[in-house]
């Protein structure tokens, strides 16, 4: 009757510390940078260094590439 006193394996794994539980990767949010207007595809600003496909993060006063850290400041002097 040793089987009854033994804990199920799944419970033992939960107690063990150190290893984080595996989480699935979040789906890519790149589709957010595309929009279709009147049959034409509109793309967000892409990185001049990384090329098309790498989109730039937009802040209120600058745009930033998370891959190569390219930063472009909104030009206020042109106004
Ligand atoms: Zn880049």
Description:
With 79 residues, the protein is an alpha+beta fold. It has a domain at 49-79. It has 2 helices and 6 strands; from the N terminus they run ααββββββ. The strands form 2 sheets. Strands 3-4-5-6 form a 4-stranded antiparallel sheet, with no helix packed on it. It is elongated, with a radius of gyration of 24 Å. The N and C termini lie far apart (84 Å). The mean pLDDT is 81. The structure holds zinc ion.
| Strand residues, percent | 25-35%
Give me the count of strands. 6
Radius of gyration: 24 Å
Strand count, sense and barrel status of the largest sheet are:
4 strands, antiparallel
Q: Any ligands, ions or cofactors bound here, and which? A: zinc ion
The total count of helices amounts to 2
Flag low-confidence runs.
none
Order of strands across the widest beta sheet? 3-4-5-6
Mean pLDDT: 81
- Overall morphology: elongated
> What is the helix content?
10-25%
Q: N-to-C SSE series?
A: HHEEEEEE
Please report the distance between the alpha carbons of the first and last residues.
Answer: 84 Å
Overall structural class, as computed from helix and strand content, comes to alpha+beta
